[in-house]
Amino acid sequence: MEGHIPVLKKPILEAFRNVSGLLLDGTFGGGGHTEALLEQNSSLNVTGLDVDPEAQVRAESLKQQFPRRFEFYPLNFSELEQLHKTFDGVLLDLGVSSFQLDNADRGFSFIKEGPLDMRMNPNSGIPASHFLKTATSEELTKAIRDYGEEPHWKFVVKSILNARETETWETTTEFVAFLLENTPLMHSKKRGIHPATRVFQGIRIAVNDELNHLEKGLTAAFNALNKAGILAVISFHSLEDRIVKQHFYEWCGRSTNRLDEQPRQLKTISAELLARKPIVATDEEVRVNPRARSAKLRILRKL
Ligand SMILES: C[S@@+](CC[C@H](N)C(=O)[O-])C[C@H]1O[C@@H](n2cnc3c(N)ncnc32)[C@H](O)[C@@H]1O
Known about the structure:
The chain is of the alpha/beta class. It is built from twelve helices and seven strands. The chain is 40% helix and 14% strand. Bound molecules: S-adenosylmethionine. S-adenosylmethionine is lined by residues 4, 6, 26-27, 29-33, 49-52, 55, 76-78, 93, 95-97, 120, 213, 217.
């Protein structure tokens, strides 16, 4: 199994260069960002969180490397209030890691055969196979149209609802074969991505309730930031970035809507944007790590 290359590592190190004290890595994953941050600055300690039990196992070796400067909790970042701590920096690197994507047994891959699961925490919630059996028409539409942004969503939802009366999909490849045989996805105009990409993305977001956790987690992270603390968030698709942008603009007293006539001074400004536009990967980084292609990094400082 291959490892995970931390995305936008350079700008992340830059963002936290002058931060000392305690940093929260809310999406520990393989610990790539945490390790680099601990190495960069000896006056920084890190608390790592991840919902995935396999991330907890990986965190053990970092604990041995930095016994007094690193700790890990198996917690969703939306529940970070439970830590009763404040932080000088918070990093959220959203979505799934290459460890999860590349391990067929986790069910995220539409190429490798595995159980149709897709849960970041396999001990909680329902696997994707169960979601496909039990979701209402509205829930399937939300997943495939809204979260997956799949142009053929209507056809896909209808096909799933009709077929599931007689068929079940227990593995990733069974479900992909069904999609390719029974929906127009194969003729999807968007080249360069697998035809099942958007459907898988939508179901994954639904199964893990990712956007609700993000909404809740961003507010919790901002509340837990000390004055002058830095919040950096890397998102990987437009739905995530929209939520991040809305929250950042609200805290920084900026409008996301050009028609919003509310005068600036009436808004409570509690943070400043450290990058006016989201930071994206260089061509060089994308060449080495294609996953960085869609990454967008937004950074703010709490006032
Ligand atoms: C993109 S990876 C992070 C990679 C990490 N920055 C690194 O360098 O190795 C995202 C990780 O966050 C975890 N994750 C996603 N959403 C989460 C949430 N709401 N709470 C806690 N962990 C979450 C996933 O399980 C995954 O391991």
